[in-house]
Amino acid sequence: MMKAFTRETSTAIAIPGVNCDTDQIIPGRFLKADRAQGYGQFLFHDIRRDEHGEIDPSFPLNRPGADAATILLVEDNFGCGSSREGAVYALVDHGVRAVIGPSFGDIFFNNALKNGLVPVRLAAEHCEALADYLTRFPAAEVSVDLEAAELVLPGHLGIHPIAIDHFARDCILGGLDEIEMTFTFMEQITAFEKDRMASHSWLDR
């Protein structure tokens, strides 16, 4: 079940790389794994390791305390490439609640919304300013306030609007997928069908 999201406040980890595609987020060979065991263990599997397959301590998510962050700052065109939903599963299973970046792959963006991961589009200059701030103040916190539709950045970096489709936003706020959200309207649906059958009785023949 999707986890409800209203406001998330956390340190943020900057992930380097323009055009970080879904195969970098989770290599395709891991998609046969049982999701019940969690895809978080495969997140950025190859790019967080060196040429010998060993954990690279310089990769942002490998640094002490980084695993506690629930917000990522990414670069342009994050999540491009194949349409694998497993890329979103890997982020969600790792505990990531929101991803901030200048732009996202279209399919990744929509998959994120359907799985309770909030993708926040933020102008490139503001992303660069945030990345610089986090370099100087790694303990700084960022707030993604979905209820208020606001991204609250640390220091002097200000507050920025979050633009997300209203239906998707309502689903995520309630922790409901599209089918579960539809069920919340069952009373109205039942009333509509009753009125429709009363005015179009021939439909029941």
From TrEMBL:
GO terms for biological process: L-leucine biosynthetic process. Its EC number is 4.2.1.33. Pathway: Amino-acid biosynthesis; L-leucine biosynthesis; L-leucine from 3-methyl-2-oxobutanoate: step 2/4. It comes from the Bacteria. The keyword ATP-binding does not apply. SUPFAM superfamilies: LeuD/IlvD-like. The keyword Lyase applies. One of its GO terms (molecular function) is 3-isopropylmalate dehydratase activity. It catalyses: (2R,3S)-3-isopropylmalate = (2S)-2-isopropylmalate. Gene3D superfamilies: Aconitase, domain 4. Keywords: Amino-acid biosynthesis, Branched-chain amino acid biosynthesis, Leucine biosynthesis, Lyase. Residues 3-124 form the Aconitase A/isopropylmalate dehydratase small subunit swivel domain. One of its GO terms (cellular component) is 3-isopropylmalate dehydratase complex. Heterodimer of LeuC and LeuD. Catalyzes the isomerization between 2-isopropylmalate and 3-isopropylmalate, via the formation of 2-isopropylmaleate. Belongs to the LeuD family. LeuD type 1 subfamily. HAMAP family: LeuD_type1. This is 3-isopropylmalate dehydratase small subunit.
